[in-house]
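User: Fold this one for me? It's N4-(Beta-N-acetylglucosaminyl)-L-asparaginase.
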Amino acid sequence: EAVKPIVIATWNVPNSTSKAWDVLNAGGNSLDAVEKGVMEEEADVSNQSVGKGGRPDRDGNVTLDACIMDKYGNCGSVVYLQNVTHAVSVARKVMEDTPHVILAGKGAEQFAYEKGFPKENLLTEKSKREWLEWKKTSQYEPIINIENHDTIGMLAIDENGDISGACTTSGMAYKIGGRVGDSPIIGAGLFVDNEIGAATATGVGEKVLKTLGSFLIVELMRQGKSPQEACEEAVNRIVTKDKDYKNFQIGYIAINKKGETGSYCVQPGFTYRKYSKNEHKNVPSGSFIT
Ligand code: SD4
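Assistant: Here's what I get for N4-(Beta-N-acetylglucosaminyl)-L-asparaginase.
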């Protein structure tokens, strides 16, 4: 008997998983659940890695990356989106209202206004102050992220057993202007195949992009691996090829059609949030470095 409905998300994000659960528990579909769920983090200015309040690039611009994928394999994505908080909802509009998958930069922003999204300043005083402080040295190093608030990737199975996923981020703090990470790239930051399962990623996006981690995990599950085994293999794929692995974090979470879940990361400290009928809890992830 499959576990459903169920939702999981990267990091300890109880507001987001509660919101998604409310949608699922009321009989809603997994696409609405993941969108509404991650919107909580996008609107939360205390999360400085997602949506409004996100840390800017090195020029002081907050630029958002997000994507969403449904049970049919439809997907939509925005990259380098500015001045609009709910990047995931713009991505959903790209999926549903256009013949395209990805809209970038000014085009994505213009599309969002046409769809009625408000123009907002996403740079909070706090993120601005920290950026000005950073500028004094301008030392760029992707941070090994072990905080409990970060890029949010969310995967859900609804009452009908259908799977959807979403991923949204403001990307690496103080990135070069124009940089796009893994989070809005289908197959890298997120992948859903309703017959098999789904996966999503957090951490240094460049590493995930090079191995198309989320697609890899879903394909490994297709070949019979459990979500846990598939996440471990995807992390192994990175650390065996990248000698620098001690200096970055990658975290994957995955779910299969039965509602079994798994996660794995490079550095200790990554957790994921899980909400099903029987539990709402933060689950510690196993890590390559112990
Ligand atoms: C990125 N993967 O833009 C995102 C950042 C992230 O935890 O996940 N931070 O590379």
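One thing worth pointing out: The longest strand covers residues 75-81.
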